[in-house]
TrEMBL record:
Family annotation (InterPro entries): PqiA-like (IPR007498), PqiA-PqiB_transport (IPR051800)
One Pfam short name: PqiA
The name this protein goes by in its record: Paraquat-inducible protein A
Membrane-traversing stretches: 57-82, 102-130, 151-171, 177-197
GO cellular component: plasma membrane
Coiled-coil intervals: none
Subcellular localization: Cell inner membrane
UniProt entry tagged with the keyword Repeat: no
Taxonomy, superkingdom: Bacteria
Alphabetical keyword list: Cell inner membrane, Cell membrane, Membrane, Transmembrane, Transmembrane helix
Length: 217
């Protein structure tokens, strides 16, 4: 008795359907070249986001380039009556840990260093997995994409902290706090990674898996 073959899932694209990016409704396109609009919300239908991989790669590379000065340049410059000094992100983490504020140091380390770097690594992994047609783990990659999209808005912690400190600590000429050049680069990294997550089309993950199954057949 021959073993039963596992049933392979059929994608919406293989059924001639298209998913609305706004309300997630599965609809039948009006025309192969011009899908039309969603019958429920009126949003424009797209089979796949145009040049999704190229745009996401460009944004990820730009964010990776800006990530270096964001961590190397001073994040905040403090000027007192006697002296002045500037702190990078890691310098601030070390200072907070040495002064006993290790919970705050841990929060800054995770939100300002590990989260942006983790988002870059995750996006690069998703791009390479789609381009190389990596088999399996589609559900895990889809969850990873949703996680990157979710935590993107919480990566501006350093910018918010510096903004509040600059607004509150202005005791010139005794003491003044000014934002450093790293604030701009850090904000650019956060914005670019958020846009990169939006330009990446997660449906490509399932397309690559479907292409591998067709090749096996």
């Amino acid at each position: 008795m021959s073993a039963l073959k596992p049933v392979r899932a059929i994608t919406a694209a293989q059924c001639g359907l298209i998913s609305c990016e706004t309300c997630k409704l599965l609809a039948r396109p009006a025309h192969p070249e011009d899908p039309g609009h969603c019958p429920r919300c009126g949003g424009e239908l797209e089979f796949r986001r145009r040049r999704s991989l190229q745009r996401t790669w460009a944004l990820v590379i730009a964010a990776a380039v800006c990530y270096i000065p964001a961590n190397m340049l001073p994040m905040m410059a403090t000027t007192t009556f006697a002296s002045s000094h500037a702190d990078t992100i890691m310098g601030g983490v070390v200072y907070l840990f040495a002064s006993g504020s290790w919970p705050l140091a841990l929060i800054v380390l995770v939100a300002s260093v590990m989260v942006p770097l983790g988002k870059l690594i995750a996006l690069i992994y998703l791009l390479l997995s789609v381009q190389r047609g990596m088999p399996g783990a589609c559900h895990q990659r889809a969850r990873l994409y949703r996680m990157v999209e979710l935590i993107g808005r919480w990566s501006m912690l350093d910018v918010f902290v510096v903004t509040f400190i600059v607004a509150l600590v202005q005791l010139q000429p005794l003491m003044a706090v000014q934002p450093g050049p790293a604030v701009l680069f850090f904000a650019v990294v956060v914005v670019l990674t958020m846009i990169a997550a939006e330009t990446f089309d997660p449906r490509l993950i399932w397309d690559s898996a479907a292409n591998l199954e067709n090749e096996d057949d």
